[in-house]
Design a protein that fits this description.
It is a single chain. The chain is of the alpha+beta class. The protein folds into four domains: 4-135, Rossmann fold (3-Layer(aba) Sandwich); 139-247, Beta-Lactamase; 263-366, Beta-Lactamase, CATH 3.30.450.20; 379-524, Alpha-Beta Plaits (2-Layer Sandwich), CATH 3.30.70.270. It has helices at 16-21, 80-87, 105-138, 157-163, 167-170, 175-178, 188-203, 254-262, 281-287, 293-297, 301-308, 364-378, 388-397, 413-420, 422-439, 463-481, 504-524; strands spanning 4-11, 30-37, 51-55, 72-77, 95-99, 142-147, 152-155, 207-215, 218-230, 236-245, 266-271, 276-279, 309-311, 316-318, 323-330, 338-347, 353-362, 403-411, 444-449, 452-458, 489-497. The strands form four sheets. Strands 11, 12, 13, 14, 15, 16 and 17 form a seven-stranded antiparallel beta sheet that branches.
Length: 525
């Protein structure tokens, strides 16, 4: 952040002001330089950019009243009536605040800190605006900001020069006025433009689209990137757009190659029959395809894509945006890589497809992160079985299908923790989970909490086989934990339903009761 130096000039015979205001709290990047002056002195402040003049003697302001610099602010400590008598109804522009002279020190200090904070906000606002304007005016693409209704807030120089209108003329105006759309268009151009921006605001993500606009150079073809803008309340308040004129780029000139090289995607440009025209360096590096003319002429895009990728989902087509979308995995390599493939139609003047921009975006990290979140949300961290929430949700989703459920509760597990500690108890739980997966590989297994487990088998099953395997599970657990000499075992309740009843709660209670009866039977035997 830029360092800010604020000069504070105090005209007063009261020395306490200097000591009081020097105690003000401020940001680390702010320096306050104090200057004490007598009420009849006139220090030269012309070399300073940001100056705060504070006085309890109104005449001390006279030498500076005509200073037009934006960084000059004045404060009078005294009676408001004195100000009114001196200046009448037209107060000086730089006189920003009046502070009553009778206020306690704590109030004066608070007023001063608030004014310094506001001064810094004004400076930062100017700084950010300067950065913004320098950035967008450097760009050779059209840049524009709009509100939710499609009215323009701000544009860059390139936009002004393209439409032959100034920023002042463009501000608050809609598409048809700015682009001089003829009346016979009937608002169709503006409607299409607004539709794409509504989609951006609804999806709350950056969208890429083709737009055709009539300019003084004829009909132009723009590749546009539009993103949502958010207000302080978190709601979308408008959009920002970048438009790159690609009207003459289908013949692959220098400008086209510059565009391809600077976009953060692997890109291939192909004809309407999918024969290659150009690829960028990122595509070359990522997929090992050489882009010299000889190699490119032998490159079969469709065959390469079929051999290189395995679809993750169905290929879809957006009729409004004229784009095919699909996610696919790379077939080669030791690591799983997932790409989002966007094949954007290139339309000519008459709306016919003349080719495609094929963009490949590596979304492996995003998908792994999403998968990790789902795993954390749905599984038990100790045993890596599914958790209680996911298990019951799974049963609800299959409630109208045949189903077999096993509720399992370990016997004498508490004695493991009491005798050998929780680390040993965790080891027993992890081994039990491993046995359940081994014995019932076709089931969705879960740890419900503590030493309680469950397994759900969807579809018709053989009760005798399920029961027999429950006995094997019990034997495996007993033998595994025999060295502990604590008689650790497991009790199981088994219930089956044919799918005609969707009452999962009753089904769960039935399994739970059977498990409880088996546990009680062991205690009394």
């Amino acid at each position: 952040m830029d360092h800010i130096q604020l000069h504070v000039v105090i005209f007063s015979e009261n020395p306490s002001y200097m000591e009081l205001f020097s105690r003000a709290r401020k940001e680390d990047n702010v320096t306050l330089e104090f200057v004490s002056a007598g009420v009849n002195e006139s220090p030269d402040i012309a070399v300073w950019e940001d100056v705060l003049i504070i006085t309890d003697h109104l005449a001390s302001l006279d030498p500076y009243l005509n200073d037009t610099r934006a960084g000059i602010q004045m404060v009078f400590i005294g009676d408001a009536g004195e100000v009114a008598d001196r200046f009448g109804t037209e107060l000086p522009n730089r006189l920003v605040e009046l502070w009553p002279s009778g206020d306690p020190d704590v109030i004066l200090l608070h007023r001063f800190e608030t004014l310094v904070e506001r001064t810094i906000r004004i400076y930062n606002s100017w700084l950010y605006h300067t950065w913004l304007m320098a950035t967008i005016d450097t760009m050779q693409d059209l840049v524009w900001y709009k509100d939710k209704d499609g009215l323009h807030w701000l544009v860059n120089n390139k936009f002004e020069n393209t439409v032959h209108k100034t920023r002042a003329m463009i501000h608050g105006m809609g598409h048809n006025y700015i682009w001089d759309v003829p009346p016979e268009d009937g608002g169709k151009s503006e409607f299409r433009c607004l539709e794409s921006e509504r989609e951006v605001m609804e999806k709350k993500t950056t969208c890429v689209s083709d737009e055709h606009v009539l300019t003084d150079k004829g009909l132009r073809h723009f590749l546009t990137y539009k993103s949502p803008l958010y207000g302080r309340d978190g709601d979308v308040m408008g959009t920002v757009g970048i438009g790159h004129d690609v009207t003459d780029l289908n013949n692959i000139g220098i400008e086209m190659k510059m565009l391809l090289e600077n976009l953060p995607f692997s890109i291939a440009v192909v004809e309407d029959d999918w024969s290659p025209v150009e690829i960028n360096s990122r595509f070359e590096r990522e997929f090992g395809i050489h882009k010299d003319q000889a190699s490119l002429s032998e490159f079969d895009y469709a065959a390469w894509k079929a051999e290189t990728f395995s679809p993750v989902n169905e290929r879809t087509y957006d009729e409004e945006l004229h784009v095919y979308l699909q996610e696919a995995e790379v077939n080669t390599g030791n690591t799983r890589e997932v790409f989002e493939i966007m094949e954007q139609e290139i339309l000519d003047y008459f709306g016919n497809i003349s080719g495609y921009y094929c963009l490949f975006r590596n979304v492996t990290i995003e998908r792994e992160y999403e998968s990790m979140i789902l795993k954390f949300a749905n599984t038990d961290s100790l045993t890596e079985l599914y958790n209680r929430r996911y298990f019951f949700e799974y049963m609800q989703n299959h409630r109208h299908e045949p189903m077999t459920v096993l509720f399992m509760d370990m016997d004498n597990f508490k004695s493991v923790n009491d005798t050998y500690g929780h680390a040993a108890g965790d080891a027993v739980l992890k081994k039990t989970a491993e046995f359940i997966r081994t014995i019932y590989p076709e089931a969705l297994a879960a740890r419900l909490g503590g030493d309680e487990f469950a397994a759900c088998i969807v579809g018709n099953t053989d009760l005798e086989s399920v029961t027999e395997r429950a006995g094997k599970l019990r034997t495996m657990i007993e033998e595994e934990n025999a060295p502990l000499n604590l008689n650790v075992s497991i009790s199981t309740g088994i219930s089956m339903k044919d799918g005609r009843s969707g009452d999962i709660d009753a089904f769960i209670n039935e399994s739970d009761e059977r498990m409880y009866k088996e546990k009680q039977k062991k205690k009394t035997s």
